[in-house]
Write a structure and sequence with these properties.
The complex is a heterodimer.
Chain A: H1 11-19, H2 23-45, H3 48-64, H4 76-98, H5 103-107, H6 114-125, H7 129-136, H8 140-151, H9 156-163, H10 167-187
Helix pairs in contact in A: 1-2, 2-3, 2-4, 3-4, 6-8, 7-10, 8-9, 8-10, 9-10
Chain B: H1 7-14, H2 20-31, H3 34-48, H4 58-68, H5 121-127, H6 155-164, E1 169-174, E2 180-186, E3 191-195, E4 205-211, E5 218-224, E6 230-233, E7 242-248, E8 259-262
Antiparallel strand pairs in B: 1-2, 2-3, 3-6, 4-5, 4-7, 7-8
Helix pairs in contact in B: 1-3
The chains are: A mainly alpha, B alpha+beta.
Chain lengths: ~190, ~260
């Protein structure tokens, strides 16, 4: 069985084809990145049903508004994952608003055991080995806010409260942590 | 942070962890600062490297395909069959020949067209009306398709040329007060929707095309906000009754908004 006509097409070519409402191009993009979008939504949401909805929304939105992706600004994968993350975080926050202060919130309350909580969160995330090693290269003060905000879908204020640290400090540690994470990933052979 | 580059906020923004107020300030800054835009893009690519792949449930693609009108494309995480090199010849009216882009792929069974919400009563009423317009669509167009990655042709010209083809068919969709608002055109291989007289929708909304031939409306695809006058759509063979509705821009699995035009009565 021959491969699809689009299997050798570049991401930019696929995005242009989606702009012409080429359904096969959307299928090829989904084949390439559907797994990553699903995986991220699932990690942030911890709920397969909600993750399915986010995954569906990301690709249907892209189909309806393909011009929002700008190939000059980075990879299609990175852009789709940013969409998936934004949608997932919106969902987390609206779920939170619905059932405020539930036990999941309590889980990140500022307690002496928080650091081990973040560690167990990282365990639960079941990250790839090289990603885990890269995160391990950060000091906890930089790793924890990134994990809580990115994978936990928490605002930086919420993260600061959970960590018992000043908000401004958390902001700047997120920034410095992201820079180090990038270099750590490069050291692991991943070029983000 | 109005004049300076808000470097800390850019990182927090990339994590989707800013307050709404701060997010809006960063977004306003990004509009006029390419350097900061590049920093956000770099943060996002770093974060993207944290995620690896995991196969999603097949139902996810099935719903995407149904909602976008790419419904003839099989689940793409499986091996896909190849497309025909050239468009198929015009089919006889009413032919059920399956020459969509996915050769040999069966038409999606009805269970792949899930409905989350019940159609409104208006929709039930309309889909019960007998076809008023005799329209036969030749061939199966399948998913909206552009045959190559060549320079995109002007869709309006392509649609106009399609109307001239032998065997071409045109369905005119009218508004509730009888004004012709849109046309569905097919030349036997490619389908087009031409929005002749419909307003551009506000942000967050889109037109969605449906066929009313079955017991329930089935999506033929999200058309966009009406800013673009012509779009390609997949029109299965034999489709004769169409309707356009306004939906959220991501589309809906069943019509939820007002019908703006239809040829079904």
């Amino acid at each position: 069985m021959a491969a699809a006509t689009h299997d050798g097409t570049s991401d930019a070519g696929l995005a242009a084809a989606v702009a012409r409402q080429d359904g096969r191009a959307l299928a090829e993009i989904y084949r390439r990145y559907g797994g990553a979008v699903w995986s991220l939504a699932r990690r942030v949401l911890r709920d397969d049903h909600l993750a399915e909805e986010v995954c569906q929304t990301v690709f249907c939105d892209f189909w309806a508004n393909p011009g929002r992706f700008d190939a000059e600004r980075g990879s299609l994968r990175s852009w789709l994952l940013a969409q998936a993350h934004g949608r997932s975080v919106d969902t987390v926050r609206s779920e939170e608003a619905r059932r405020r202060r539930d036990e999941r919130d309590g889980r990140y309350a500022a307690t002496p055991g928080l650091e081990s909580d973040v560690e167990s969160t990282i365990q639960e995330l079941d990250l790839a080995d090289h990603v885990r090693r890269a995160l391990d290269m950060l000091v906890p003060d930089e790793r924890n806010p990134i994990v809580l905000a990115y994978f936990g879908g928490r605002s930086y204020r919420d993260t600061a409260a959970a960590l018992g640290q000043p908000e401004g400090t958390v902001k700047s540690r997120i920034r410095s942590g992201l820079g180090k994470l990038r270099r750590a990933l490069e050291a692991e052979g991943v070029t983000p | 942070m109005t004049d300076d580059h808000p470097l800390d906020e850019l990182a927090v923004y990339a994590l989707d962890a800013l307050d709404d107020d701060e997010r809006q300030m960063v977004e306003a800054h990004l509009l006029r600062c390419p350097a900061c835009t590049a920093i956000v893009d770099e943060h996002r690519s770093t974060l993207a490297a944290l995620t690896d792949d995991e196969p999603p449930p097949p139902a996810v693609w099935q719903r995407i395909a149904a909602q976008t009108g790419a419904a003839d494309v099989p689940t793409p995480l499986a091996v896909m069959p190849s497309a025909p090199a050239a468009p198929p010849p015009p089919a006889l009216p009413g032919s059920q020949r399956g020459t969509g882009p996915a050769v040999g792929a069966p038409a999606p069974p009805t269970h792949l067209r899930p409905r989350r919400t019940e159609p409104s009563r208006r929709w039930v009423a309309i889909s019960g009306v007998a076809a008023a317009v005799a329209l036969v669509v030749g061939g199966v167009v399948g998913a909206a398709i552009a045959a190559s990655d060549d320079e995109p042709a002007n869709l309006a010209q392509l649609a106009a040329a399609a109307m001239e083809q032998p065997g071409a068919s045109v369905a005119t969709l009218a508004t509730g007060d009888g004004r012709d608002a849109a046309r569905v055109v097919t030349d036997g291989s490619t389908g087009y929707i031409v929005l002749d007289d419909l307003p551009t929708l506000p942000a967050g909304q889109a037109y969605q095309l449906w066929t009313l031939d079955g017991p329930d409306p089935v999506s033929l695809g999200v058309i966009g906000d009406g800013g673009q006058q012509v779009a390609t759509v997949g029109i299965p063979a034999g489709t004769s009754r169409f309707a356009l509705s306004t939906e959220p821009s991501a589309g809906s699995v069943a019509p939820t908004g007002d019908i703006v035009a239809s040829n079904a009565g």
